[in-house]
Amino acid sequence: MYKIITLNLIFVLLQQFSINAQDSLSIKTLSINGEKLPFEEKKKLWYESFTIRGYAQARYNRLFETNNQLGCEQCDKSWGGNGGFFFRRIRFIYFGQLSKQVYFYIQPDFASSASTNGLHFAQIRDAYFDIGLDAENEFRIRIGQSKVPFGFENMQSSQNRLPLDRNDALNSAVSNERDIGVFFYWAPKKIRDRFLMLVRENYKGSGDYGVFGLGAYNGQTANKPELNNEFHIVARICYPLEIGSQIIEPAVQGFTGNYLIPKDQITPGVKTKSDLNYLDHRAAASLVLYPKPFGFTAEYNIGIGPEYNKITNAIEERPLKGGYITFNYMVKLKKQILFPFIRTQYYSGGKKHEKDSRSYVVHENEFGFEWQPSKNFELVVMYTMSSRRYEDGGLKNNLQVGNLLRLQAQVNF
User: How many CB atoms neighbour CB 360 within 10 A?
Assistant: First the structure.
């Protein structure tokens, strides 16, 4: 009896003064001479179940601009005439491991642009939860709005990416890189830890989307309602290989489905299929060498999708192709880090989520650097040399060529 009373008093004192707190939280029973003594496990308070972080990006794109008619709707709405200082992203991320098998992630953006004259609207980017299917969460199901596992740069956070905008070729597959659906991911614990390390150690990783991913999603892109009662199906396989001190990550991926073009996205007089349903198929290959210190990323995709044809004044199912390659280098200057980089990209095809599934031919070269004087602040300086032909029912024979110097300040918190 005295042993029981004494042990309970010790347990109360440990809780009161937080001595050996980690052990006290995990104790449920204690055995003395084979006798199990019950103890109450301390429950987490609601605010101890999640973490908040975020980042904000402010840009200016008009320095040394040679053509104010050159724009990129999918890239950055502050390109071109009347563009000024611009918030590209203001994001708060709420995430946490609610239990060993349940994880949640919610990311709103407070700098979404509803139109060219309506800025800084709040909009959900991610809202999902992961359900682990085994003790190590090597097998998991993701439910909600999240990134579609197609393309390394699409999955890489804009907080980590070096070029200011994603490449046209693969990013044209999924507007805002996201959609609502259900996704299955698998990766051994060792590889999951490697994915996390590549982000944590500033190697510009994409995050943990598994060695194998398979999913079904609406297919109308993020924050858009489903219109045709047909799912898109996506699959991806990748593996980050350690070769000496280097890590190289090859991947293949693809998706298939039908995209229904919304009526308000069609210029009057432009001809379309009667049901507005168009094939939307793609396959892509990716190869990443993480910067230790030299790195590169190369991706290429082919497929079929809706695209405006100015000769027939119609939206048709047409082939698409394109990709990019980025070279980069990590320079450590005491506590500061510098990432010089250069990227070249090409894309020929339609963008299904733009007006009339706008037709594009893009040739673009960019070079610059990202400077990180501390973990909380980054500055990107990038020079862009662009040739973009983009045409729709109201904008025919439109070829814009120009150069511009672009600046971005980013705060991480």
Answer: 24
pLDDT tens digits, one per residue of 89-122 = 999 999 999 999 999 999 999 998 776 677 889 9
CATH number for the domain running over 44-412: 2.40.160.10
Give SS3 for 4. Answer: helix
Strand partners for 326:
297, 343
The pTM for the full model equals 0.88
| DSSP strands (E only) in 218-313 | 232-238, 241-243, 246-256, 258-260, 277-279, 281-289, 294-309
Helix (H) or strand (E) holding 200: helix 189-200
Query: 185 by DSSP, 3-state: which?
Result: strand
User: Alpha-carbon distance 336 to 285, whole Å?
Assistant: 33
DSSP-derived secondary structure letter, 145 = E
Whether residue 140 contacts residue 285, with contact meaning beta carbons closer than 8 Å, is answered with no
Q: Give the contacts of 320 (CB within 8 A, at least 6 positions apart).
A: 172, 282, 301, 302, 303, 304, 305, 307, 347, 348, 349, 350
- Give the dihedral sign, CA 202/205/207/211: negative
Classified as helix, coil or strand, 208 is coil
Cα 210 vs. chain centroid, distance in angstroms?
Answer: 14
Buried b (16+ CB within 10 A) or exposed e, 118-135: eeeeeebbbbbebebeee
Nearest to 93 by CA among 65, 56, 58: 56
Instruction: Count the Cβ atoms, other than its own, within 10 Å of residue 94.
Output: 16
Residue among 244, 247, 96, 74 at smallest CA distance from 165: 74
SS3 (DSSP) at 45: coil
State the Cα–Cα distance between residues 55 and 76, nearest whole angstrom. Answer: 17
Residue range 277-295, pLDDT digits in tens:
999 999 999 999 999 999 9
Which residues of the chain form CATH 2.40.160.10? 44-412
Q: How many Cα atoms sit within 13 Å of 245 on the Cβ side?
A: 5
